[in-house]
Amino acid sequence: GRTTIADLDPVLNPPGRYPKHYHHLDDDSRYPVRFRLEGCSVWNDGWPQQKWNITHHDSRNGLIRNNFCGAIRGAGIWGEDGGSYGHTIDGNLAILCWIAVDRDPGRTGPGIGGIAFGNKVVNNLVCNSYRGYEFWSPRYANGEFSGNRASRVFNGFTPWETSADYIVKDLGVYSCNGAVHLGYPSKDLIFDGLVA
């Protein structure tokens, strides 16, 4: 990918040039899984300037499973606008995802982030990163977040602007230097089985 953490520019730093970018793949009843990324390594040779490794942008029903990504100054797996839903993000490892700009979505260093709550995010591991998991967008509340782990992170789980009941199940956050749960305007968030 060639999009960097610098401000976007149509010539010098065009948006959307990420190593894996699933862009506007809407529902299609002929395909129960709209896109599939399994067993891949997306490691950033441009460390530390590239922005995101694996990106899904306003897409539906994708499968991102058993991948390895990292060495990024942005996010390992990122939902570009929080409008994607129906994805299964399962068993991935994201490491060395570091902050570029604080409080600027997409550049705050989550291993897995920008994810709307209407996705199934299970059994992932984020290590040696600024944030473990960063969720936002209250538009889709019927998802699943369970069995995920974060180790050697500054913040474990960061939700932004939640407004619907959502259960964070069996989250483990280890060797956290900051907040296990850093909640921006959010409510009705339930932790079940948090280990820190």
Can you walk through the features of this model?
By secondary structure, the protein is an all-beta fold. 0% of the residues lie in helices and 44% in strands. The protein has strands at 20-23, 35-38, 41-43, 52-57, 62-65, 68-72, 75-79, 88-90, 93-97, 110-115, 120-122, 125-136, 144-146, 149-160, 166-169, 172-174, 189-192. Strands 1, 3, 4, 6, 7, 9, 10, 12, 14 and 16 form a ten-stranded parallel beta sheet that branches. The chain has a seven-stranded parallel beta sheet with strand order 2-5-8-11-13-15-17, with no helix packed on it.
Which keywords apply here?
44% strand, globular, 0% helix, mainly beta, 196 residues, single chain, 10-stranded parallel sheet, 7-stranded parallel sheet
Write the layout of secondary structure elements.
Elements: E1 20-23, E2 35-38, E3 41-43, E4 52-57, E5 62-65, E6 68-72, E7 75-79, E8 88-90, E9 93-97, E10 110-115, E11 120-122, E12 125-136, E13 144-146, E14 149-160, E15 166-169, E16 172-174, E17 189-192
Parallel strand pairs: 1-4, 2-5, 3-6, 4-7, 5-8, 6-9, 7-10, 8-11, 9-12, 10-12, 11-13, 12-14, 13-15, 14-16, 15-17
